[in-house]
Amino acid sequence: MEEDKSFSELIHRGEDNSHGWQKVTYVKKRTKASKNTSSNLLPNGSGAVTDKNGVFKAVEKNAEDRRRILDAKRAASSLYDDDDGFPVRSNRNVDDDEDYPNGESKENIPADANKKDKPKKVKSPKVTVAEAAAKIDADDLAAFLSSISESFEGQPDIQLMRFADYFGRAFSTVSAAQFPWLKLFRESPLAKIADVPVSHISESVYKTSVDWINQCSSEALDKFVLWTLDGILADMATQQPGSKSSKKGGQPASSKAQVAIFVVSAMVLRRKPDVLVNLLPKLRENSKYQGQDKLPVLAWMIVQACVGDLAVGLYLWAHHILPILGGKSGSNPQSRDLVLQLVERILAVPKARGILLNSAVRKGERLMPPSALDLLLRVTFPSSSARVKATERFEAIYPVLKEVALAGSPGSKGMKQVSLQIQTVVVKAAGEGIPALSQEATNIFIWCLSQNSDCYKQWDKIYVDNIEASVAALRKLSEEWKRISLKQSSHQALGETLKSFRQKNEKELSEGVDVARQTYIKDADKYCKAILGRVSRGGGCAKTMAFILVLTAAGVGAAVVYPSLDAWDWDKLSAVFNT
After folding, report:
1. Cis omega (within 30 of 0) on the bond before 281?
2. Structure pTM?
3. In 201-321, where does DSSP find H-type helix?
4. Backbone angles phi, psi at 364, to 5 degrees
5. pLDDT value at residue 29
């Protein structure tokens, strides 16, 4: 028995191939397996159908393959929409069946069911500069200005800031889209931006403002205008490509002060244009106020000053804007065009010529200094190869600007001084070998000689170093002596200068100069000799004529006093004159 028992145990161990391992199964799989087992029972429930011999194995395999192919086709067709053939995603999974027991899926639930109704944002109405300006009440502004004048008495800086704040609040609803000032300034002619945005201010509000501004100190206004300029340039910097605001896209939101800065700045400059003159040193010294991109803003500010005083406008143009043409930006067509637009606008004002000539000297300074005249000469009379489209525009404005540059009281101390300065400037231009420039510079050089006899002494000092210009001046004096001689300040000074020139010529020729220079010196000596002869003859004739006039007057007087004077006495007098 024991042998049988041990034998049976060996048999069981041989049948057990698990080698001590236990098989783990999932509950779901067991449930499915039990279902599959029950499905194999016979209809009467007597037991499962088994195929121990594998007779139907091949048939079942073929049926299974056909069923798998049909299921795959059915699944593929259900993944595409009937109309456009795009796959339709389904988020349904096994776990979803538990959440949706009625067979509904997430796709069948309306999307809006899970979203809370959000209130729509009400867009604020767009307000233009004109609409905001129309709401400003002059009486309210006057009361406000009176209030801050009392509250901040003796503090003009704070008063002006509060003044700017008032307009800042008035224009706070104006968006950047309604006031794209930078684009306007860059793309529009100066005539179009000249009155932006102050043209929208009513006359009563404007008058109330400028009357109050007139009471402010010049020092406080200087600081205030510089502050407004800094604000404008700061906003410009934020709109430049590469700045943080520009990277975000679009124009930055307009600050309260943006429209207001332009309004208050324009009103101050129109009422107190001298403020901009006081700021010129800072504008020249600080690089942040320089550059081509700043030019439209500065031109706009000068236009505002012109409204108050046209002479101030030309002064600012000649001292600050025109010199740009002599720098790096001078060759830029846009800069040149803006420089011309500004001066053309100044000269287009009715009676501009008379106003500017009467104000040619302003507080001891000339509207058109000699340096400005020199630059104007060079842009108006360039070489033939250097002419550009703007040259004709310079030729059109040159005559009036030349008059202003040379205007003044003849013989006055200021006129004598400026004639010496201009002579130094034009003598260089006359010797540069450009025909048109040389001719115009020579004309101005001769004019200097007629204003101040000291110009002859200065000419004597620079004669040798500027022989080409000297030859041009001597030639003109010789060829147009009859006309020019009547305007010369001193024939005696001219004669002495010509004698000095001849001595210098003789010395130069004796030292053996080059052939080209010899030609100039010989020509100069020839003209000196010719003019000296005319000066000598002209001086004698002048003395004779003066003597004749004196004697004639004396003779007439004697005839009246002594009517019995006989003919013999008149014959003697005639003989004296004839000798």
Report:
1. no
2. 0.72
3. 203-213, 218-238, 244-247, 257-271, 274-278, 280-285, 295-308, 310-316
4. 80, 0
5. 52
Question: What is d(CA 528, CA 495) in angstroms, rounded to the nearest whole number?
Answer: 9
Rounded distance between C-alpha atoms, residue 310 and residue 273, angstroms: 9
Q: Is the Cβ–Cβ distance between 344 and 191 less than 8 Å?
A: no
CB 196 within 8 A of CB 262: yes
Other C-beta atoms closer than 10 Å to the C-beta of 63 total 11
Q: Are 463 and 502 in contact (CB under 8 A)?
A: no
Q: How far is CA 141 from each of CA 137, 246, 263, rounded to the nearest angstrom?
A: 6, 36, 14
φ/ψ of 80, rounded to 5, equals: -115, 145
CA distances from 348 to 16, 193, 319, 520, 548 (A): 118, 16, 20, 44, 52
Close Cβ partners of 298 (under 8 Å, ≥ 6 residues apart): 283, 289, 320, 321
Please, which residues have CB within 8 angstroms of residue 405's CB and are 6 or more apart in sequence? Answer: 360, 366, 368, 369, 370, 372, 373, 376, 422
Per-block average pLDDT, block size 10, for the chain (579 residues)?
44 47 54 50 45 56 77 63 45 44 49 57 82 97 97 96 96 92 95 96 98 97 97 92 54 61 98 97 94 95 98 98 89 94 98 97 94 97 95 98 95 93 96 95 96 96 96 96 89 95 94 89 96 78 41 42 44 45
pLDDT score of 110? 54
Residue identified by tokens 């287009």 is 348
Report how far residue 108's alpha carbon sits from residue 88's, in angstroms, rounded to the nearest whole number: 13
Beta bridge partners of 361: 366
Residue found by looking up tokens 């500069």 in the block: 129
Query: In this predicted structure, what is the pLDDT of residue 54?
Result: 53
H or E stretch at 356: helix 352-358
Q: CA–CA separation, 160 vs 149, rounded Å?
A: 10
Separation in Å, CA 88 to CA 76, 77, 97, 100: 11, 11, 19, 20
Burial grade of 232 (CB within 10 A; 0-12, 13-18, 19 or more): buried
CB 438 within 8 A of CB 472: yes
3-state secondary structure of 350: coil
CA–CA separation, 359 and 80 (whole Å):
88
What is the Cα–Cα distance from 225 to 152, expressed in whole angstroms?
19
In the chain, the amino acid numbered 220 is A
Side chain identity at 217, as an amino acid letter?
A: S
Expressed in angstroms, the distance from the first to the final Cα of the chain is: 193
Task: Indicate the DSSP class of residue 366.
Answer: E
